[in-house]
Specification:
4 helices; 270 residues; 15 strands; alpha+beta; Immunoglobulin-like; five-stranded mixed beta sheet
């Protein structure tokens, strides 16, 4: 049995999937008011998206949705823990620039499930800036030697000028490029987590037409400039300790100053 097959069997045993292989994941289209039941061959999409990076998923290494959804906002920060009802990976923090400029970026992913998930070549990060016409891949997992996100742990992808603790697990292969953008976590062509953020009404309108969950989150004070007001250690973090998933980015994310990155070497969430 291959390593990937063994991981799949373990995931099935723990999460109760109906068939052999990785459990399936249902991604809730924006505005549908509940999670759609996914299948291994079902096309995953989001309403109101243009130039999306989605498509049909041959499989997904995420479990079917549990059906219950938390709503935004009691606390900010990352990490979910045993009380988190979400059963798939989530983008939990984004910084589009930092003290070291536009490449001082980070994208943090949180695993609220009970099993480790290998970030192999089935996974990718796709980005579309507010003035872009399509999505571009900014990270793709490796075919061998992948890093796994432990259960209740984090995975940190950072830009070339990221220089703080904790160290990044992997590096972006290209910049986020914009302080107003849509970022997708994609598994085998299916969008698993979508986060849109923007500054200013015009940028918000532009980004809202992309693949988002609800309205874009505010990314102020970042404003596409290299001013001292824009190049600051500020990020957007998912509320409710990384578990808020009301399918509205504006509700689910809060600006954090400073940023609060966590990686696979960070403490697990109880």
């Amino acid at each position: 049995m291959t390593l990937r097959a063994a991981a799949a069997v373990a995931a099935v045993a723990l999460l109760g999937a109906a068939s052999c292989g990785y459990p399936t994941f249902g991604f809730d289209p924006v505005g549908s008011g509940g999670r759609a039941s996914g299948s291994a061959s079902a096309a995953q999409s989001t309403s109101g998206s243009t130039g999306g990076a989605g498509g049909s998923a041959a499989s997904s290494s995420q479990s079917a949705s549990a059906g219950s959804t938390t709503t935004g906002g009691a606390t900010s920060g990352t990490g979910g823990g045993a009380g988190c009802p979400v059963t798939h990976l989530l983008i939990s923090e984004i910084r589009s620039r930092g003290l070291n400029g536009g490449n001082d970026e980070l994208i943090e992913i949180y695993n609220p499930t009970e099993v480790a998930i290998p970030m192999d070549d089935a996974w990718s990060i796709k980005v579309r800036g507010s003035t872009s016409t399509s999505y571009a891949t900014r990270w793709q997992g490796p075919t061998t030697g992948s890093v796994s996100i432990p259960a209740h742990g984090h995975f940190l992808i950072a830009g070339s000028m990221y220089a703080q603790m904790p160290p990044a697990d992997v590096m972006l292969t290209g910049s986020i490029t914009a302080d107003s953008a849509s970022i997708l976590l994609v598994n085998l062509g299916a969008t698993v987590s979508a986060v849109c953020f923007a500054f200013g009404a015009d940028k918000e309108t532009a980004v809202a037409a992309f693949t988002c969950e609800g309205k874009p989150a505010s990314n102020a004070p970042h404003d596409d400039s290299a001013s001292s007001l824009s190049n600051v250690d500020s990020s957007i973090v998912r509320n409710q300790n990384g578990c808020a998933d009301s399918h509205d980015n504006a509700t689910d994310f809060t600006v954090s100053h400073p940023a609060k990155p966590e990686s696979t070497v960070s403490a697990l969430v109880p």
